[in-house]
Amino acid sequence: MTAPGPKLLAHLDGHHSHAVNDALFFPELDAVISVSDDNTLLCWLKRDSGQFWPSVHQTLAAAASAVVFDPESRELYAGLANGDVWVYTLAEDFNGVVLKTQFKAHAGRVSAMVLDKPRELLLTAGKDKEFRMYSITTGYLLGRLPLDAQCTTLQYDAETQNAFVGDYHGDITVVKIDGSSLTKGAVLQGHSGSIRALVWNEERKLLFSGSFDKMVMVWDIGGRKGVSYELRGHGDKVQGLVFLPETQQLVSAGDDRTMVVWDIAAERTKVPAWAESDNCQLCGAAFFWNFQAMWDAKTVEFNRQHHCRRCGKAVCNACSPNMSSFPKMGYEFPVRMCNECMKEIKPEDKQPLAKMYPARHQVVSMRLVAAGGSHDRTLVTCGKDHAVKIWSIEDMLAGVTSQDSPTVVSTSQGSAPACAAASTSDPPAAAETADTADAAAEPPATQAEVVPAGGLADLVADSEEAEDFDPFSH
């Protein structure tokens, strides 16, 4: 019997023909705040009819990319595409906003913001390739850190005061905050496209990243051993992520109009490094560039190099005609397998470790409601269809209660890498428009480097060998 999917509780459609970039849901008041590329900020209230209607329609100076709210001071921060942050005071009944102040936070679009209320800090990341820190009491700039690429998304660990900044090149930079000092730490590399979503789980010390490359990566930062693994279950870029620690499940969504629920407690196998060879590593046939071998054999063949996703060997098409899913490596869809690996794959190896459900729109961003009661498992998705949708996921997540830590198993031939509201209107980068047919043009993303701020590339090849890895060191 198929498990029930997400239940749509409300559909809010009030923005004008532009993507909704971020939204906040307040279940105790049945209220919503949303911001959009149509230069508006809307506050919604649920009426007696059961429908949500706008109670505030605030026009902004530019498209709004991110929003955060401080319930204590009732201050609402809206990050704009022109680099401004506008600060409003929200009425308790959600029927009015008053502009308190505005300031130029970045020279380009404000991609993401995080509020650290105990330390009275507003952390921002922008398309001007900078991470910045502001005082929410004075509005003064306390620190700035130039980065290597346009920033796209942001997460923050308040306990250790480490920020994780995703960028347009597909890297994740760890930024250490110490008073007014910002220090660049490790750079996590594993994606081949821009980072579109980040989620940090403070309890487990796990960082999840979603990317233009259609892949989700799980970074075990708490283990300090550089372990990470891939999850491949989307047909288009991943733009929203939420993690549920109670059930050890990750929910991802994106442009393919699909929600995928991943079992993070399941045993996982690291993806092997892709081998490079002039000849097929199974039958010995020369690849098309190996003219000398073809001359010696007095044959002319056009053999392309492919790679088995399970073992990583370089193989010809005749030795790898098979397609199979392999969820233990994160492959929920069928991928290329060599003849040897296909013989070893058992039916139980194909059992899915993720569930897929229709999201009914292209998701730009996604949030999990943190309140208790009947709304403790409610998702809010923002879409390119200028709509906000509120979902109940109680039934969707039923049945998985494991509290075990995820297990990552090494493969004999492989190596693996070491170890919030995002702008989504950027044009594709060159790395994002590469040929994806067979995904054979480049090696898999798990051949990642952890690059300290000093610029030395330290490859963490295997978790058993990386005993003292610390992603926060510099």
Brief rundown of the structure:
The chain is mostly beta strands. The protein has helices at 291-297, 339-344; strands at 7-12, 20-26, 31-36, 40-46, 52-59, 64-70, 75-80, 84-90, 97-104, 110-116, 121-126, 130-135, 141-146, 151-157, 162-167, 171-178, 181-189, 195-201, 206-211, 216-220, 227-231, 238-244, 249-254, 258-263, 268-269, 306-307, 314-315, 322-326, 331-337, 354-358, 363-368, 378-383, 388-392, 408-409, 450-451.
Write the layout of secondary structure elements.
Blueprint: E1 7-12, E2 20-26, E3 31-36, E4 40-46, E5 52-59, E6 64-70, E7 75-80, E8 84-90, E9 97-104, E10 110-116, E11 121-126, E12 130-135, E13 141-146, E14 151-157, E15 162-167, E16 171-178, E17 181-189, E18 195-201, E19 206-211, E20 216-220, E21 227-231, E22 238-244, E23 249-254, E24 258-263, E25 268-269, H1 291-297, E26 306-307, E27 314-315, E28 322-326, E29 331-337, H2 339-344, E30 354-358, E31 363-368, E32 378-383, E33 388-392, E34 408-409, E35 450-451
Parallel strand pairs: 25-34
Antiparallel strand pairs: 1-33, 2-3, 3-4, 4-5, 6-7, 7-8, 8-9, 10-11, 11-12, 12-13, 14-15, 15-16, 16-17, 17-35, 18-19, 19-20, 20-21, 22-23, 23-24, 24-30, 26-27, 28-29, 31-32, 32-33
